[in-house]
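Subgroup meeting minutes
Present: P.N., E.W., G.H.
Scribe: E.W.

1. P.N. recapped why we're keeping a running log of single-chain structure predictions: easier to compare across weeks, and new members can see raw inputs and outputs side by side.
2. G.H. added today's entry (83 aa).
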Amino acid sequence: MRLRVEFTTEPFDLDEAPAHARAARRVVETADLDAVDVGPFGNMAEGGADAVLTAVDAMLRRTLEAGATRITLQVNVIAEADR
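Output recorded in log:
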């Protein structure tokens, strides 16, 4: 099964990426994922279910430790044709 996760961390800072956003970026960029798109207002990653779920667990833990006060995420099952 393939999954796509889209997430944001808050609070936002338009001048500089906050520590929690940098922590989230490090997690998804170093995880064993097939695709990662990191942006200022939202992030996306996709891959096999185990890799995505492992990355989501690490991202939640590390961003909360780094000061996130809110994390919004959506996980979707994706078909091979959607890649």
